[in-house]
């Protein structure tokens, strides 16, 4: 039986990865930070199948202890301060977790079990002000947020440990991947949850930032399969995981409203742009400049050709199915909230 250690196990990706590894017969360990109230997050439904270890990415001693306890054959580092907007408010904490934290984990592995295989969750945000379209493994990086900069350090330190210590250490440069388990602060889940509330009459409209920002969106469940595949190869390499399709935030919102049975039409430009329900004429979406980033990433679209060819990876969930799943899930959640309130 293989043993796997997952940091960030209670998040979106961590939960789907834990499910996948359990299905494959792994003994799964998950890192948890100590809180006054225990919160299993997205793995609450499988918490009895996971071995939890209290540790912190900023505390190397706790990571060394976690490696000694788990004796992990595979380590998946998904822990991060992952909300881009917050990285401007907490740049130092973001750097401590997303950059130095990666070094701490690599050192813990090197000290305790250097033959263990390590996966680093890199991100398309490292491309930032894109230097080529689409982006692949050879595209130069140009991060545009403290989050992107910190993740770039994590990406390069992983490569450095691979080349310095001959460790099996690799990064998956994952483009935007969403799901029903995405946090409410992220724009995709913010949209689908608001659409559900608008559909059920408990919210008038949703306010968003830059509607022209383009992203390459896939489903987390597909992307965690790629993480596992990265650690099953003969040699460690870095891979872009993406759909090679890009859509604007506006298009995502339009698809979400459609999934809820609401046809919308957009009017105006810039901060004055709105979306109206065609059937009622009511304004259901507005632009709020408070949500604009200090430095915007305008366009992300990844080329997954290398992963498709060498890993045999391919996505199974389309963009429309992703949006439909998220809206359906949020409709069920909001309906339950309404019943509880009554």
Automatic annotation (TrEMBL):
InterPro entries assigned to the protein according to its UniProt record, in alphabetical order: GDP_Man_deHydtase, NAD(P)-bd_dom, NAD(P)-bd_dom_sf
CDD domains for the chain: GDP_MD_SDR_e
Cofactor(s) annotated in UniProt: NADP(+)
Reactions the enzyme catalyzes: GDP-alpha-D-mannose = GDP-4-dehydro-alpha-D-rhamnose + H2O
GO MF annotation, one: GDP-mannose 4,6-dehydratase activity
Catalytic activity, EC: 4.2.1.47
Family the UniProt entry places it in: Belongs to the NAD(P)-dependent epimerase/dehydratase family. GDP-mannose 4,6-dehydratase subfamily.
Function: Catalyzes the conversion of GDP-D-mannose to GDP-4-dehydro-6-deoxy-D-mannose.
PANTHER family hit by this protein: GDP-MANNOSE 4,6 DEHYDRATASE, GDP-MANNOSE 4,6-DEHYDRATASE
Protein name: GDP-mannose 4,6-dehydratase
Species per Swiss-Prot/TrEMBL record: Lachnospira intestinalis
